[in-house]
Amino acid sequence: MDSIEIAKNNLKIIKNKEEMKKILGMNVTINKNIKLLRPILITLNKEMIKNSISGITKNNVIKINATEIIRRQNKNTRSKLIDKDKNGHIKGDKVRNLIKLLCTAGTVRKVGKADLTTSKVKEINNARKEQSAKDFYKSIPVYYEILDIKNADFTRLQGFNENTKLKYAAIFDMYGKTIADNTFNRVYGDNKKTEEGVQGIEYLKNMLMIKEVYSLSEVVEKISKFAIVPMLKDSWKNVHTGKEKKSSTWWRDYFKSLSSKYLSDNNLKICMAGKLKKDMKKSTDFRTSTLVITSM
């Protein structure tokens, strides 16, 4: 099937509850756990049918930004997707988070530099030469391929929501390089900061041999002092904003990017201290609202 036929078939499945039940975790994920995935998934597939682009890669692709995706939703959905910065401008973080989730599930694939035709690579490289770094990175195109939803696995998204900020290394550690690349590909640059996983789960297991329960803050503070992460130094500059980001923040995002299924498979749990006491009968000195990590 070509990309447009795949998108048409995907829409039929999305609208048929019985068909969704045949796909790993799809029905419960998009109809209950992360309901905002559904309108995003529909919008992306409709975009492929109506406005697909050819000649950029071997397959047809789409180019659509977060603001446009939000604009196409009904009033109720739009209000849930909109997130604004301090100046009142739409940031689009929730939409980008949701698209990464769809990529991780295997319904969408972010196009990378290696996928592009030679002429498209030259076009992007020339644009970089003609613009300042700030202007270029603001205008750099993002393309997506639509994948056959029958091959998707929504169980990969257990424990996530529209506010989850996935980390490449976490996806790499859980599901391998191909899925991580499909989620984080870029059409410019070599992704040297995000080439591999970090096996953070092993650090957790070792720490929990010493102490039964840690707060997430304790974990990231300890790990950031000794664990070497190949894709970052103690801090690095984000080319888009110029803000520095510390390794402790990176580790916090990493652990929040680990799905509940993956943690459970490794006999680990991340939850609020109050839930730990209620569900696992483990008492701690932490406040009930404190995010903690323990073994199961």
Question: Low-confidence stretches at least 5 residues in length (pLDDT < 50)?
Answer: 234-244
| Percent strand | 5-15%
Indicate the structural class: mainly alpha
What is the mean pLDDT? 88
Ends apart, CA distance between termini = 45 Å
- What is the succession of H and E elements? HHHHHHHEHHEHHHEHEEHHEHE
Q: Quick recap of the structure?
A:
With 296 residues, the chain is mainly alpha-helical. Helix content is 49%, strand content 8%.
Model description:
- By secondary structure, this protein is mainly α.
- The chain contains 16 helices and seven strands.
- Strand 4 and strand 5 form a beta hairpin.
- 33% of the residues are buried.
- Helix 1 (3-14) runs antiparallel to helix 4, helix 7 runs antiparallel to helix 11 (177-184) and helix 10 (168-175) runs antiparallel to helix 11 (177-184).
- The strands form three sheets. A three-stranded antiparallel β-sheet has the order 3-7-6. A two-stranded antiparallel ribbon has the order 1-2.
- The protein has helices spanning 3-14, 17-20, 26-33, 37-51, 66-71, 75-81, 93-105, 118-130, 133-139, 168-175, 177-184, 200-208, 216-226, 247-256, 260-265, 273-280; strands at residues 108-110, 144-146, 213-215, 235-237, 244-246, 268-272, 291-295.
- Helices cover 49% and strands 8% of the residues.
- It has two domains: 3-194, no CATH class; 200-295, no CATH class.
